[in-house]
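in:
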């Protein structure tokens, strides 16, 4: 198999079984990651506010682009609900910056190239595409309350209508 046919998230090393992510009611795993535009973003930056933490497989792919545009379109509504939005993938910051500029995204994007946060949230998982197994990011979303505990988890996200569903949950929290 040529390197061009292997998704960027695949690993040739031994795969560890996916560790389950935190469930509703659990403390949100702490993180500090490099973010778009430079600098870092940490869970503690959102203390006292609600946070939508959504994980996407790869910047500038169709589903990920639609999801990011939807969250950006609703950014003001999330703000009125006292909620911030942060998208996370394993893409390098340069790719995040390019993605954000190309699609005029208004939400923050973070990069977890080392996959520590992805593993802590249980989104770095074994996947299958056309019968070939590889590890990558499962599209998942977490709503974190102002107390930094998980309020709700969407373990298998369907992109269409997802941002609206998350907004409704944030308003109800």
């Amino acid at each position: 198999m040529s390197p061009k046919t292997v998704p960027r998230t695949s690993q040739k090393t031994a795969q560890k079984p996916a560790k389950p992510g935190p469930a509703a009611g659990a403390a949100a795993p702490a993180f500090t990651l490099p973010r778009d535009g430079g600098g870092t973003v940490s869970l503690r930056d959102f203390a006292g506010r609600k946070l939508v933490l959504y994980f996407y497989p790869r910047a500038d792919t169709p589903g990920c682009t639609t999801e990011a545009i939807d969250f950006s379109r609703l950014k003001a509504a999330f703000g009125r609900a006292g909620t911030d939005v942060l998208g996370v993938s394993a893409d390098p910051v340069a790719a995040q910056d390019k993605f954000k500029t190309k699609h005029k995204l208004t939400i923050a994007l973070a990069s977890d190239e080392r996959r520590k946060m992805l593993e802590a949230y249980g989104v770095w998982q074994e996947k299958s595409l056309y019968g070939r197994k590889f590890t990558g990011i499962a599209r998942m979303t977490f709503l974190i309350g102002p107390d930094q505990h998980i309020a709700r988890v969407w373990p298998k996200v369907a992109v269409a209508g997802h941002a609206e569903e998350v907004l409704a949950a944030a308003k109800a929290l």
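note: The helical segments are 62-73, 75-80, 93-102, 116-120, 162-172.
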